[in-house]
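G., before I forget:
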Amino acid sequence: MADGTGVLILGDASGGELSSTTLELLAAGQKVAADLGEDLSVALLGDTLDAAAQSAIAHGAQKVYAVNHPLLADYQVDLHLTALEALCKDTAPRVVLVARTNEGRELAPRLAFRLGVGLAQDCLEVSVDTAEKQLLANRPVYGGNAIAVVSCDQTPQIAAIRPKAYEPAEADSSRQGEVISFPVELDASMALTQVVETVLEEAEGIKLEDAHIVISGGRGLGGPEPFAQLEELAKIMGGTVGASRAAVDSGWVPSSYQVGLTGKTITPDLYIMVAISGASQHMAGCSGAKVIVAINKDAEANIFKEARYGVVGDWETVLPALTAALRELTQS
Amino acid sequence: MAVKICVLAKQVIDPEMPMAAFRIDEGSKKVVPPPNIPPVVNGFDENAVEAALKIKDSQEATVTVISTGTEFALDVMKKPLSMGADELVLLQDDAFENTIDSFLTAQLLAAAVRKLDGFDLIICGRQASDWDNAQVPLGVAELLGMSCISLGKRVDVIDGKVRVERIIADGYEVVEAALPALVTVSNELGQPRYPTLRGIMAATRKKPTIWSAADLGLDAAQSASRITLRDLFVPVSDQECEIIEGEDPADSGRLLALKLREDKVI
């Protein structure tokens, strides 16, 4: 594949409709396709894709490749990879955009290796060098301490985009597009891994990724018990509770609470960080928060360089006073 | 039959170093290793060593650690041995520079795995804390044509299969694959064990195998570049933090609530 044309997005319609990360990719892809002066296509893999395909067109895709197969109904990495590899080889896109979800984290690198091309991983922003028709990708490295600008040397140029780095594309039902059925030959023996059980351990209440207010606790809390106080504050404010990696590693809360580079990416309106130093690896998961509030006894903690409001003090004293005052305010 | 396990590990700049010590040489687009702060074994790779040793705790197994780089701090890279790994293989050559291009690294590691006649199970950290690329392990699996399970928090070998608890957004799933297989693990696997005194003594006596590019029959210069690093910079935060200060910490907490209301944050 020496050359290619167009932008291909790997869409996710596993819930029957397009995922929020797909809508974000559509926003990123529209801009890239427009700068290249080329088409925007979406690949959808599954067994019932009609509604999602129409939605992709309304959200800005000129073409949708519907890869319908009963074996693609549930996500299985080998089968999805086989289908994607075939689609990329056949349609020869110039650019492929993938969301860096848990699936994208494995699909994008493996697809790149299969195609013998490079991957710009975990990008915050992609732009186009229009003269060279090169994708330029901004990606945090060294846990977010630095930003690297990279480009891919072969075609297709693949980039994995961090969730929530882009606002979702807007729908416009007057848009026209074409749905193209792309047949693939798959059989069950191609799946080298089998899921034998799924265990859900999501916290009760509002999902961390969807919450408008998040209150996270870190290493400085010293144990699991103080999380009850964070839960109390979250309840008053209509928010939800998260945690730093240190708190998860200590076993104080389940890993589904973890915010950060290797945990969840959140973009709440208000993010209250209690006893978290604010290492770049944590900030990588919350830099999209509109307002950050820090409570930390260490005045030198990095978090005071990132927060909008801060209180320097021991959480054990500050938090109950904050909670009591907020309870009063919300009741009045 | 002993389970033959390989762990791929990387030497990295200590990610816990003070942020103030983080420096970039803009000319060469490289991170300058901080003086007086020794490098460490990548944290997720220590989780991988722990995963391998847990298997070795319960059944007959050998654990070989492979790393690639231009320059190694031997006492640092021997840590997996002092934790209980059996062998250390270092792929050391000036051509193996730490780059953002994962393709070459994966090729080197795959070549070393082949030279060691393959493994039943390869365990890797999910990503390295320097370039955060999270590509090399998956690339090794692709190059070797192995089945691959990513983001494990528990790894068991049962009846010729690997069984992995794989992290998903809202919990985990139990995934199985026939051996040989490659698994990447995350910090959710739990704290790596500390080296024992006996382990440290044993590690002191062990000599790593050191292979160059020529030993692997590879010419790094022949490998086409896949990624170009155009720029590398430290992002600037222009956030001004307003410190809320009351008469005492409790008063500060109360004033913070009032301030959030006053500024219509809540």
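Chain A touches chain B through 90 residues (CB under 8 Å). The mean pLDDT of chain A is 95.

More on Monday.
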